[in-house]
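new request in #modeling-help
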Amino acid sequence: MAVMTYREALNEALAEEMERDPDIFLMGEEVAEYEGAYKVTKGLLDTFGDRRVVDSPISELGFAGLGVGAAMAGLRPVIEFMTFNFAFLAIDQVINGASKMHYMSAGQFPMPIVFRGPTGAALQLSAQHSQACETYYTHAPGCKVVTPGTAADAKGLLKASIRDDDPVAFMEGELLYNLKGEVPDDDDFVIPLGVADLKREGSDVSIITHGKMVHVALQAAATLEKDGIEADVLDLRTIRPLDVDAILDTVAKTNRAVYVEEGWPYAGTGAQITTLIQEEAFDHLDAPLLRVSQADVPMPYAKNLENLAKPSADRVVDACNRVLYR
Amino acid sequence: MAVMTYREALNEALAEEMERDPDIFLMGEEVAEYEGAYKVTKGLLDTFGDRRVVDSPISELGFAGLGVGAAMAGLRPVIEFMTFNFAFLAIDQVINGASKMHYMSAGQFPMPIVFRGPTGAALQLSAQHSQACETYYTHAPGCKVVTPGTAADAKGLLKASIRDDDPVAFMEGELLYNLKGEVPDDDDFVIPLGVADLKREGSDVSIITHGKMVHVALQAAATLEKDGIEADVLDLRTIRPLDVDAILDTVAKTNRAVYVEEGWPYAGTGAQITTLIQEEAFDHLDAPLLRVSQADVPMPYAKNLENLAKPSADRVVDACNRVLYR
Amino acid sequence: MAETKTRKKKGNAKGGGKPSGAALLEQHGVDEALALDLLREMLLYRRFEENAEEAYAIGKIGGFCHVHIGQEAAAAGAIKPLRDDDYVVTAYREHTQAIAKGVDPKAVMAELYGRTDGSSRGKGGSMHIYGAECRFMGGHGIVGGQVPLGAGIAWKIRYKEEDSVVVCFMGDAAVNQGAFHEAMNLAAIWSLPAIFVVENNEYGMGTHFKRVSATEVVDRSASYDIPAISVNGQDVLETYARFRDLAEEVRGGGGPRFVDLQTYRFRGHSMSDPVSGTYRSAEEVEERKENGDPITLLRGTLFDAGILDQDGLEEIDGEVRGLVEEAADFADASPKPGPEELYEHVWAQENHGRLFFDRREQAR
Amino acid sequence: MAETKTRKKKGNAKGGGKPSGAALLEQHGVDEALALDLLREMLLYRRFEENAEEAYAIGKIGGFCHVHIGQEAAAAGAIKPLRDDDYVVTAYREHTQAIAKGVDPKAVMAELYGRTDGSSRGKGGSMHIYGAECRFMGGHGIVGGQVPLGAGIAWKIRYKEEDSVVVCFMGDAAVNQGAFHEAMNLAAIWSLPAIFVVENNEYGMGTHFKRVSATEVVDRSASYDIPAISVNGQDVLETYARFRDLAEEVRGGGGPRFVDLQTYRFRGHSMSDPVSGTYRSAEEVEERKENGDPITLLRGTLFDAGILDQDGLEEIDGEVRGLVEEAADFADASPKPGPEELYEHVWAQENHGRLFFDRREQAR
Ligand SMILES: Cc1ncc(C[n+]2csc(CCOP(=O)(O)OP(=O)(O)O)c2C)c(N)n1
Ligand SMILES: Cc1ncc(C[n+]2csc(CCOP(=O)(O)OP(=O)(O)O)c2C)c(N)n1
Ligand SMILES: [Mg+2]
Ligand SMILES: [Mg+2]
């Protein structure tokens, strides 16, 4: 096991896949000469040249659409959004284009394209730069949504996403890039999409989550442990498609669950998971399913308000205690 | 009570409000000379002139943003999207602009703008033209979402939306435009936003819905009645903000609920309502909450497949029977 | 030639000192066989869509249906000069362009009927005709949405160092979309092998181009320094000649080109829209049909050149009518898609995790 | 004048046959008092942001913070000629432009500190400074997003038949956004009273404009037939004179204008980005600071004209440093927003239905 940062893991995944398949190219703002606004693409220009690592103008709709067209013609584009906050400008090409092409053409045009970049809040970036955008991509069928929380998951899932013939919104975390973790050495480490990972085992309560929040969940679980409460921490890793079995299994085991997500609560992914569980495991539930999410407000700039707005381990512990009726 | 079509009701609301307040203007594709792709703006150019009823180029992002700027400067724009399918191109101005402006400016810039147009499927318009887009606007805080299902609601809610100082996504139904209904005569008929309407009373099961689906729900309720089952049909009318009390009241009464929505199930508005209910009325539930929605696929063209994909009264009856364990 | 903007007044093909039919063929380097072929093609498109209109009227075709009647030269003239390995991508008024690029008229008609033998097995419909094997890339319904796709297809050609080109069609109203602006700039900075063609039929639905645009169509590539020309799109010979030359310029690495292809729509915007009304007069439409029908114009040239006479014309017409009948019968006979097709082609790839709707279905 | 494109080589203000300081003031119709005021303003912006940089370094300011250092003439020269009832809307590099339009430096600093006396009570931060009462319309973070807003503000002016104007700033990278294209066309077809100003500092983050753009900035209004000029944005006198004239042209109903305001960023893109590196050399930056500092240039002119000497300069500098100290102390003393503010200003209007989060909170 090599220890590396989440950033390095993504970089390795990109380099290995581009090495493997010459039809993969990377395009986005500042990805080449600047080596990425967050340095995820460090060194790739040197290794693969400016034919395959391409700086784009600030034209999100345009280069996302260029990627969709290139994928129709047989290439495998990796399109970087500097952050998903800016992808609202390109969402028409993702939802009306990439996500429907295979269906509208009855299979004539698979869509092997990855849209990647950070999602969610960093530190005090304020309302327009602090949005967890997952739900905008999970709602419509046709697009897969992958949200790795650790270095190993980042590498294995990005490799799988690049190999996938469906469009993938691959959502990273700006605050995760520097996070170190162990990554298996095997030279072709791929994690299949749609398989959740039990990051911690316990039998009293299930904390289900995805992306950056897996760390908040684990922190909460550690606190609960001191109280003698053992939590299952299930990291979905892929929120579309869903590992339904893993979700139902942990709920069947603990009969109580809390969903933790970085995004807004209203009609978010957490609402979907909650609904799925109560529709399909109603009789296993000893308490209502609760969610911990961002406060239902645009993200404020002031640090103290931002901290209040973000999901915290304390609030997760709180929610767990409530579903445990403690 | 005058009987008029949903289209006429919207037209009256626009005319009355524009008459009342000279700062209201209407802009969109084909709204003036062509009198609207669906003729909702019939006669308005003649009455108010081309200063206030304005044909725009096909530039959704541009004229939506123009509306946001005009609202910041004190006007009250009504921006028509020919359909909300095309609003994906403009969603950045709605989510990052209109919906956050008041918060980012700490109250300096209220946002009295209405984005209106049809949402959801009509007949065989295929994948890119048959999307119920509500959830894309309910997820983020700051934007209100209004979905009238009848002529009276169309008129009263549009007037309220135009008078509201928050941005409103006012979502109509192409298939509703010709629907006739009674509309109160009083010359200032306004329905406050955020107040649900019990369209039918019954005590056995709650059918909760919004928009076009209220008619599917009522049809299902009529079928159930023949079986001796009395359904409450609650029309939310506004899906953001939500009339939480009305929802909890009907569930407290029947202890069983089905949500019917035109959109996709995954992390849709129905998931939100379901989650809200199970979080806050868990002990009132005698059965899991079920949803009836569009099939989780892009909308196919072929008529027989389209009918399979759409929510139907049969499927609602079915779901009601299941929550009644019959 | 394409380096400099040349504006053509509409109808100048029939302008003063009218050249003979033979001279016109000569001028455009189109031989007799090809000329007859272009006529045959355009007649096929015309009859095909007339037939579709009838089918629509009796409910065999549903949804939005936009016909190309009056604009056939923009299909035959712009696409016939292309090679099989060249690409075409376009908007929703694309039945004829699909056929021109090689999609079987039977498959197009079956698609309009929503049947399994349709080009998209009935799932796409009129606005979403695709033909992967003949490099017809659809069939897109969001105005301007296909322009970045065109740039992306051209990107692939350059990336793979192929010498094919892509012709990307759009309507005049599409040039006011941001997608147009962004894609044109991308094509220019990377010198992509794309011909961006505005089918300038003067109107976007009920809005005349001049009412919503600050400059002429042909001026719209100035900001990107992409060479632009205006072409009389009702003159199939001129259109053919220009696109033949443009394709070679682009193939040779000349970078993108922009074409203001001046044409006119003889029908309403879609089957459900009026032919004329507040936005254009019946007289205007009549005048254009009278003097600007691409089929009539070519027929005149061929008669004049002595290549074709009335009998020959009727023979060709009978032939294409036969093909259209066949297509209609084929579509009629083709089965409707089965219920299992609803959930097919949502994902290209088997999912390791379970699809959401699997559960939903199981639960039902 | 603005009818014709005029290109200026950068630095030509100090080019051959250099005119005297007095002659320059004369030429631009700027009197002594105004000239001194412009210097004072630019010094204030410079000292303000230098102070903010220090505050950022010690964590008093967080998030993204983009300073305008080197570009101060684009605030003083472009905004000072405006009337109180004129509007300004801009992007995220806007501290100085807010101050120029009349927002109290204290309120700007308090906003950077995230305090309740900030222009947005600490909720907006560096990228979202607003000043409704002085018609400073923000402070927007999506590149190009403010351009349609500018068109909308101009729409309101025209709608209300006022004779004010709006100046809409954007960076050079913003011209490749679809929003720019759509808004420019809207402004042109409706002849809106807007001046669209590209602060052309040559780079968007680490990308030089020429690498991602097919033509020069000044060429980008050609497709909309909007008159364009290039202005030396390091020369505050020229900038002031041009904007004074443009504002009157537009006020008089002349329709929109487009300005390529040529300037240079002396710092990194934001506080967290390097000043130089792969994308531009340290030498390049040094050379520009050396010869293109708007404050140094004006100082030279004023010294040369005998309007100002070193003592006078230091006096002004001391004065503005005092104001900046005051602003910093004010910000420091201002309270942090209380928890109740989290849920304020989400909605402008009381909701008849209950807000979702009310319940969520109640439940906690
Ligand atoms: C983004 C978007 N906005 C609006 C529409 C509705 N619409 C369909 S076609 C059309 C007019 C397009 O005109 P033009 O581009 O000139 O093409 P033509 O129909 O003349 O071939 C409009 C407004 C759409 N499909 N997509
Ligand atoms: C739509 C969008 N894409 C990307 C970004 C990230 N970003 C912020 S500023 C910037 C560069 C903009 O450069 P320019 O417009 O020249 O303005 P300058 O910073 O030079 O003042 C980028 C890429 C953004 N904020 N919005
Ligand atoms: Mg047209
Ligand atoms: Mg710049």
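bot summary: Residues C 171-173, 201, 203-204 surround magnesium ion (ligand 3) (CB under 6 Å).
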